[in-house]
Design brief:
Layout: E1 3-10, H1 14-23, E2 25-28, E3 31-36, H2 38-51, E4 56-62, E5 69-75, E6 79-84, E7 87-92
Antiparallel strand pairs: 1-3, 1-4, 2-3, 4-5, 6-7
Amino acid sequence: MPSMAVIATTAVPDHLRGALSRWMMEVVPGIFVGTLSARVRDELWTSVAETVHDGQAVLIHPATNEQGYTLRTAGTRRRLPVDFDGLTLIRMTGVVQPERVMDLQTP
């Protein structure tokens, strides 16, 4: 039975956005909404996860749990889903600072 699914993307290749728009409607840039069967949703998510590269993507769809939905993530991200006694919460990670190279000169 088809159900609603939402895929949110950030910094993904244009061809991935084009592929998603074949199955879903892009309501605002990077946010795709559609009614998909579980099989199509899973196949579409597999290709998203393989193609996202340095970008990021999140899939949200209905599930039989306390929250009524589940989410999957792919790519590099600061927000990580964490299971907390059956509830999915989002943990924020710190920003990775680039290493600083100090030039030490002796007087």
